[in-house]
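Notebook B, p. 112. Complex prediction, attempt 2.
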Amino acid sequence: GEKVEQHESTLSVREGDSAVINCTYTDTASSYFPWYKQEAGKSLHFVIDIRSNVDRKQSQRLIVLLDKKAKRFSLHITATQPEDSAIYFCAADYNNAGAKLTFGGGTRLTVRP
Amino acid sequence: AQTIHQWPVAEIKAVGSPLSLGCTIKGKSSPNLYWYWQATGGTLQQLFYSITVGQVESVVQLNLSASRPKDDQFILSTEKLLLSHSGFYLCAWSRTGGDTLYFGAGTRLSVL
């Protein structure tokens, strides 16, 4: 099955700087790569995703890059704010029926004032 | 607008006791439904998913079972809890496979 590795378990940046979280996956059949955010003690909510037919997607301060050859994707958060502090999970969907999502281990992002 | 409700919010249970967790989705017909488990400080493990009423696929069982008795309801249960069942259980729905997951608020389970 698919394995997703999230390379940074913790990340600390200064407010206003950019944060980058990197993930790699193993299954070349994976075609959908979402990112989720979990604030302390809470559930997850969706932040952004990218599909394999594009290599870049942006939504306001969030940019996702996908390198299919390297089986790598990354989340870039620009102009970070304290409310960006949370755990971020990347995921890859390796089942083309779309019902199976494998998550990375999570990255705890801290934005320092 | 669609809403997802999980119950209970939290449970403290004894080893060997039964468990039933529930999830209801309102405002969306025929959603895909999912159960995830998160160990404290850990990643998410998909447990089950369901594409239609009465059909549930197991991804990782962990001595748990799931059922979808109605289109908008997903139940996670076991007859005998283990210590290893402790964690955060999340129900989620999506419109189709390969689409955004919308998570419920979760149930925190402590098995003692």
